[in-house]
Amino acid sequence: MKIPFLAIIAIIPALTAIFAQEPPSNRVPSWAAEAVWYQIFPERFWNGDRGNDPAPADLAGSWPFFTPEDWQIHPWTSDWYALQPWEKSVEWSRVLDWAKPGEPNFSACAGMRRYGGDLQGVIDRLDYLQELGITAVYFNPLFESPSLHKYDAEMFHHVDNNFGPDPGGDRRLWENENPADPAAWHWTAADLLFLDLIRECHQRGIKIIIDGVFNHSGNTFWAFRDLLKNQQKSPYKDWYVVKQWDDPATPENELDYQCWNGIHTLPEFRQDENGLVSGPREHVFAIVKRWMDPDGDGDPADGIDGWRLDVAEKVHINFWKEFRRRVKEINPEAYISGEVWWEDWRQYRMFNAAPWFAGAFDAVMNYRFARALQQFAINREQQISALAFADSLQAIYRDYPWQNVLACQNLMDSHDVDRLASQIVNPDRWYDHGANPLQNPAYDIRKPTDAERRRQRLIIGLQMSLPGAPMLYYGDEAGMWGADDPDCRKPMLWPELQYAAEVSHPLGKPRPADSVAFDRQLFEWYKKLIALRRQNRELALGGIEFLQTGGAAGGVTGKAADKVGSEGKPAPKILAFRRDWEGQTCVVAVNSGEEAASIELNPGENIAPGAVLTDLLNNAAQPLPAAKIPVALEPFEIKIFKVTLSSRRQ
To answer: What is the DSSP letter of 490?
Structure first.
């Protein structure tokens, strides 16, 4: 589909005025659209302090609720699926009702693993993030928790003690404070190291947001522990939804309560028409103040720059509106992103997040973007056309205010789905479905081929050039691959380390021996595309006009145009669009097909006559005469051109 160019020209100058007219309560942070995000799963990024590594006691209360006596920290560079001796020794049928006698259980072993990632490890690697070009980091949960993922918080007011330098000292401080009284909260060594991390990031121009998991707590959360102990007499009995209390006269534990997704370790907070009821509500707002303005002096420079809110659709929107008001009172430039994702996973229906942009969130994790790009650039047999891809994007642009489109976190993967590289190895699936060999035995866990890496480079090019703030999942730029949880949570690849080849399979199947190493060439591609986006602000702030969306007559040449689709027309795998902002223009041309092709740029229609096109990826310029100019595209290639007037017209 082609949008009339004059219409785009009319729209773009009005965008600033539109933003200015937005109610202050809805306005997004000024930095949000130009952010390049990087998601860090702390336990798997880097072990910078071996003195704080978890011990078996630190796992108590986390699935699979069993830790063998010979448990150890897992070797960082080991074969992911290979079991360590202490993992092989477990008879899982005695621990898990559904486990088969004599068989290893990789998922249970993965749940017990700890690699020792910590905050010092992040600080040690900030120069790496800066070299890559990252300007904003989203951390998966940092708060105290027995699990590896930390979505089952034991408390919100302290960073996990195994992420800091003094786990034992931190624990002693917890035991001598009242968790219900913010005035009594101490600053632990882990808390203070996190404040150091914030300071180090800010000095490098990097923003930080953290995961806020406020729909539920863990069942080891201090208030829930009191409820378990004191039952109806607990002052926190109204914080949760208890369906049935325990009868002390029976040997059974009849306690039943509402929990997220039926998982008993994740009890949900009670809600009313305003979201969380007063007890947990005020506690959460105290948490917001603690981490956004740690010293309480009214200057938020020492605090986090915003929040990513977990399972946000589960909490009444009225709570999030008040949450936003509290956050913006502390820091008007704070960023709020919600995890608003599946409306109906089984029916493959994602939420339209528009209601949350009316006074609640600045952005969402844009899984609608990920699904559309997967269908266009990853799928083979089920690949959608360039026109359908453009339509999917335009549906987002119609649904969301433009300022929110630009602020959304445009991701391809995360801790909740299979990695981008493995999505490419396993095409023609619904996004986030059948993404793990334990659930889908046909899922291929191998390393991507060179051709599949070309697809990855194409996808990153689109991620960096389409509207929305790109977000990378740690290690994708280093060449990491992996199925859905737990395989998407492997330890980070670092250039100086020697990794064991992957030769094992969780189902005992034969597989190729895949070498594992930091992919310098891929890293440099990511680095180049990030720099290109940051240097050409129209790619972050500009409007968009689709110039070519497939096999329009005369628009595509080469072998790609010879392939016939279901309607007897050329296979529509060619896409071109332009981004314009304040007189700056970039044109992007893409071939998502397996054959070489070319696209014709018409200077009289798409580009002003006399303009010069500079190929930003190859640093080559070409003047444009009056005739149409063919742009050659190899399979899975993206070209990004800067459009400038020739010197004689300046």
So the answer is: P
